[in-house]
Specification:
Helix 1 crosses helix 4, helix 2 runs antiparallel to helix 3 and helix 4 packs across helix 5. Helix content is about 70%, strand content about 0%. It has about 120 residues and is mainly α. The longest helix is centred in the C-terminal third of the chain and has 27 residues.
C-alpha cells in the first residue's frame, strides 16, 4: 500500500531521510555480525548499547534527530524498507496507536450504565 505524499511535504521528507542517515550506522553496529560468535556479541553488547543510547540521547537533546528518525532507520534496516517506506510504515503504526489509545480513554471515561 503506497501513501501519496503531497509535493509540499517532499523537502521535509528528504530532510528527515538525511537526518536519519547518521543513525543507521549506529543501529547496524548494535546487531552482531553473522560471522561473530553470539557469545562474543553478548559480552560486548552492554558497552556498545550504552554508547548508542548516549549518542541517541545527545542527538535528541540537541534536536539533531527525532524519535521518528530513529524508528524510520530501525524499520528500514530491520525490514529492508526504503527510508520513505519505513517512514510511511512508522506513521501508519503511530496513527493506529493513537486511535487505540483514544478508544481506551473513551471507554474509561464512560461510566457503566446501571439498571438497564
Amino acid at each position: 500500500m503506497a501513501m501519496n505524499i503531497p509535493p509540499e511535504e517532499n523537502p521535509q521528507v528528504q530532510q528527515q531521510e538525511a537526518e536519519a542517515a547518521p543513525v543507521q550506522p549506529e543501529v547496524q553496529a548494535a546487531a552482531p555480525a553473522p560471522e561473530q560468535n553470539p557469545a562474543q556479541a553478548v559480552e560486548a553488547s552492554p558497552e556498545k548499547d550504552q554508547q548508542i543510547v548516549e549518542a541517541v540521547a545527545q542527538g535528541l537533546e540537541d534536536e539533531e534527530i527525532s524519535a521518528e528518525d530513529i524508528m524510520t532507520a530501525v524499520l528500514s534496516e530491520t525490514l529492508g524498507l526504503t527510508p520513505r517506506g519505513a517512514q510511511s510504515l512508522f506513521r501508519l503504526l503511530m496513527t493506529d496507536l493513537v486511535e487505540d489509545t483514544a478508544e481506551q480513554e473513551q471507554e474509561q471515561e464512560v461510566p457503566p450504565q446501571e439498571g438497564m
